[in-house]
Design brief:
4-stranded mixed sheet; alpha+beta; binds flavin-adenine dinucleotide; 4-stranded antiparallel sheet; about 15% strand
Length: about 375
């Protein structure tokens, strides 16, 4: 059994690593304008990424992309997560951020919504979370009621990333509240200039992201904007679920990798009480534990990705990868902060931002407790 990445993915990983080291890390403290990468910085980086072939990596070949499998994508995600220049919830500099659900649209929907996103002409956002429905989307209150050739959407969404720049939303709403997540939710393409759709307010997170609250007041959506069939909303929202969990795990892996690099470098220079930090057992143990836990998690993530690419069901393993990866990121960033002492707390260093980002991965796109309880339910079911 081979635990190494195939040669072509090792090369890809190296290319991305060099890109991150040369182009992103040197500018990471100045790359942002508020919560978004500066437009001039982004334009320059996108050109360089395209020249290296690092463009549309996750877009299927039939849509003009590189069509990388999940194992390829995780190697890229790990590397880009070594820098705070690449915000975890924004478009990367390797092409627009496209949820795979858009590739399942019917041909008319693709012409109107997918292709403009691929060409960089339209932006989109995903709107599922509500004040009473976060980890548990089945309890959602937003409804979509069919009236002839229209659905009428009423409800309220919160924590929606990039709603301010979106031209259209992928909205999940209940078409049958009694059924909830078991066939009662549907997903719609909703133009942001639809009458009755209003941005109510924004909030800023400790990571610096800005998230939006949206009100839907009798928003009329043509029936042709339903994605798939009525009742498929949960399945559609979860179509990216394994990749999404691995993405979050990789964000943790990348933070952990960078934290180990920074901690080892600093510990070899910093002298206290006449001795380098690197010579102190307390610091050595933090570094060796971090290294060991990073490697174990990396192997788990590669394993889930390879199995998924091979069509082998990996539900359990994807839960474990998300839990391990996100908790690893936070734990190792925390150790790195500790080893840096007061410097680790300064906003002029990347560590505090890495630490805050890593903390958020344990909550967003499925809190780790939910992963643990679904995992436990399956384990008990298997035991019976
Ligand atoms: C920065 C950011 C960006 C986001 N972007 C988007 C977006 O673009 N679109 C979108 O739709 N949503 C988005 N979200 C929402 C995000 O996915 C939710 O915050 C997340 O799903 C958790 O939901 P909640 O905050 O309502 O927490 P809740 O569902 O209220 O859960 C709170 C806590 O309760 C615990 N808990 C919940 N259920 C269980 C359980 N079964 N067992 C044990 N413990 C449990 C967990 O500790 C959890 O953290 C974003 C959130 C943030 C912070």
């Amino acid at each position: 059994m081979d635990f190494e990445l195939p040669e072509e993915l090792r090369l890809l990983k190296n290319t991305v690593r060099n890109f991150v080291d040369r182009e992103l890390i040197p500018i990471e403290m100045e790359a942002m304008d508020g919560h978004r990468m500066r437009a001039d910085v982004r334009a320059g980086l996108e050109k360089k990424a395209q020249a290296l072939g690092l463009w549309h990596l996750d877009v299927p070949v039939e849509y003009g992309g590189a069509g990388l499998g999940l194992l390829g994508l995780v190697t890229v995600w790990e590397e880009i997560s070594r820098t705070i220049a690449m915000p975890p919830r924004g478009p990367s500099v390797f092409g627009p951020d496209i949820r795979p659900i858009l590739f399942t649209l019917n041909p008319e929907q693709q012409q109107k919504y997918l292709y403009p996103v691929l060409r960089g002409e339209k932006n989109t956002a995903f709107a599922q979370t509500e004040p009473d429905a976060g980890a548990d989307p089945g309890s959602m209150r937003s409804t979509a009621v069919r009236q002839g050739d229209w659905y009428i959407i009423n409800g309220y969404k919160r924590f929606i990333t990039a709603a301010d720049t979106a031209d259209f939303l992928q909205v999940v709403a209940a078409t049958d509240r009694a059924k909830g997540s078991r066939g009662g939710l549907s997903m719609f393409l909703v133009d942001c200039d639809s009458p009755g759709l209003k941005i109510v307010r924004s909030s800023t997170t400790m990571m610096g992201d800005v998230v939006w609250e949206l009100a839907f007041d009798d928003v009329r959506v043509p029936v042709e904007n339903l994605i798939g069939n009525e009742g498929d909303g949960m399945r559609a929202a979860q179509s990216w679920i394994t990749a999404g969990r691995l993405y979050q795990a990789c964000r943790g892996l990348g933070v952990a990798q960078r934290s180990i690099e920074m901690a080892t470098s600093y510990a070899q220079q910093r002298v206290t009480f006449g001795q380098k930090l690197a010579d102190r057992q307390a610091v050595q143990f933090m570094v060796s534990d971090s290294y060991m836990e990073h490697r174990m998690t990396q192997l788990l993530v590669y394993n889930v990705a390879a199995r998924t690419d091979a069509g082998v069901a990996s539900r359990h393993e994807s839960f474990m990868a998300k839990i391990q990866g996100t908790e690893l990121g936070f734990r190792v960033a925390d150790r790195c902060m500790q080893i840096h002492g007061g410097l680790g707390l300064l906003n002029e260093m990347p560590i505090a931002k890495m630490w805050r980002d890593a903390r958020s991965f344990m909550i967003t796109e499925g809190p780790v407790e939910v992963m643990r309880s679904v995992l436990a339910r399956d384990i008990f079911r298997q035991a019976n």
